[in-house]
Design a protein that fits this description.
single chain; mainly alpha; 19 helices; 50% helix; globular
Amino acid sequence: MSSLGKKPPFQFQVICNDGERRKVRFPKGTARKDAVTFQNMVDQMLQSLGFNEPYTDKVRNWYLQLDEKFQKKLKYLKLIDLSSTKGELRKLGGWLDYFCGPEFGHSKPQQNKHRPVVKRLNEFFGEEKLLSEITKNDAKRFQIWLGKGRNDGGGGKKDEGLDPETTLPRHMKYCRQFFKAAVDEELISKNVFDQKAISCTVKAGVQHYVPLAVSNMVRDALPDLYWKTRHELMRHMGCRAPSELNGLRWAEVDWNLEKLVIHSPKTANYKGKEKRPCKIFPAVLPLLKALWEIAPEGQEHILPSVNNKHMRDVYLRTLNNIGETVWPRLFNSLRKSAVTDAHTEYSVPGFVINEWFGHDEEISKQHYRMVTPDHYENFSKVSQEVSQQTQDDAGKEESVGTIVPAGSSIFEQSEARDGRATHLLESKSGPPGTRTDAVSPDVQEDSQ
């Protein structure tokens, strides 16, 4: 049905459904693979029109994300109506597909985070629902629906709704973001999710500190050196799993300063947050050196790439083998424990710790730092030491036997014990000048 030229700038020729032969010329610099994709999609669109069928979701998402100049070429081929394209965006399903795609610069991890929110929005409202028809009360009802379990007719988990402190407000935060972008696109006039009744504040959620003793047991039980290194990187340097672990490179290790660069897909879309330098902590350094010794020449990445499911399976099996209970938020709790220890154990300014772990002070306080049993034990020990030292000091003072006149003030008694002003003290029991033997010759001379 269509043909594509072999040399750039590529030309595309097709017989349209009205029987007319039309030719499209691609701009200079268009890659051949992009021209071939365009040709294949046009063939699918012509086939759908020939059978009087709607375009598939794949085709629809493709032309919605096209640059305007390429959409005009499809209009010239009588395949789309630009007004109907705008109409697709006015529907909830079409807008969410368009906004959550790469057109808006969303990375793969971000698209993965959007997916469950998009799925629930489409399930509750319907993909054909016009954005302008969704009201503020609809937004409130959606929030209530998410708070109920599936068994109760809600949109949460099977037996319970989404966590009201973490997952639920995070869903509402994304909804507010989706509709704000629709307002900016002039598809709707107001953001129905931007209201006080809908909270988007994500709280700290479950906080669990993994003690070093437990962490070391897990590390020793893990299968090999690669897994032990992954574990220490999470527990001591707060690497997110598995994204940041998979991105570590030998070329970005500075052995002299003992630091490495950590790439963060989670924060890659924030300016200056694509990567961060981090000190190699003492527990990690020997493991990295051991891996360097066995690394094949030319190996780029420090650790083999793994996915979250594989990591979780290995950890669950390891915890079961050593008889340790699985703690909540398996990998995130290791990162939180690392941040807590770093602020406690190292005499480094807080802003430096925050830079190493890739978050700011507010996020660190709200979501990461924890009060642990060690804090109470250490305080008790320090308190006992201070108490003992106070008692020892009191015993020493009594043994010295400093003579302080009766009736002296507390300040005078303190000065006398320090030996700094004994010669200036006078007893308040007698009139001034009666203890001339305690006054220095200079003072006597001046008083005369």
